[in-house]
Design brief:
Layout lengths: L2 H31 L9 H36 L5 H23 L17 H31 L7 H21 L1
Helix pairs in contact: 1-2, 1-3, 2-3, 2-4, 3-4, 4-5
């Protein structure tokens, strides 16, 4: 793997790891719902697994995967990725946030399901972690947008590649959808 692919591969690697843990939590839920006895089975474990499954699958997996895909598409379709150092900052922010949130879930300090709506309350590290994940993803969006702007300056009359249109729409919707969480 070349250095230019390491960024995308790192994001997708985190996504796959989150998918793996979330899948195990899904099995735990299924066994509980089927009333099958297994070691450490409890209501507490059920809610921990329910929250971990939802957050890791619904938020962490999808976020890291789309960020990795966005970097692949920018590099492949535009032939550039502007702001690679900033992208790495975003990756580490998102990863630290994810780990902080995941630890509080697995320690049964944040069993607020994947929506984490009030009146349910989680450990402050959970919310800080979720915010860091979102802020890291905003940096991803900025890097992709900067790459598109750089490409556009050199290709004034060339249509923007279709996958990039999709990625820009995804970024715009993501910014709108996550503003409330970060605030």
């Amino acid at each position: 793997m070349t250095n230019r692919h390491t960024l995308a591969a790192s994001h997708i690697g985190v996504a796959v790891a989150a998918f793996g843990v979330a899948s195990l939590m899904g099995v735990t839920q299924a066994l509980s719902m089927a009333d099958i006895a297994f070691p450490m089975r409890s209501e507490t474990l059920y809610y921990v697994s329910l929250t971990a499954h939802g957050v890791l699958m619904g938020l962490v997996f999808t976020t890291f995967f789309i960020m990795g895909l966005g970097y692949v598409l920018a590099d492949a379709c535009l032939g550039r990725l502007i702001g690679r150092p900033a992208a790495w900052v975003g990756f580490w922010l998102a990863l630290v946030g994810t780990l902080g949130a995941a630890v509080t879930i697995l320690m049964n300090k944040s069993t607020v399901l994947f929506t984490f709506y009030p009146p349910l309350q989680a450990h402050p590290v959970f919310y800080i972690g979720a915010t860091l994940l979102v802020v890291g993803s905003w940096i991803w969006g900025g890097v992709v947008i900067a790459s598109v702007r750089s490409w556009r300056r050199e290709h004034l009359r060339v249509p923007l590649p279709l996958p990039i249109h999709g990625m820009l729409v995804t970024i715009a919707l993501w910014y709108l959808a996550t503003a409330g969480l970060a605030i």
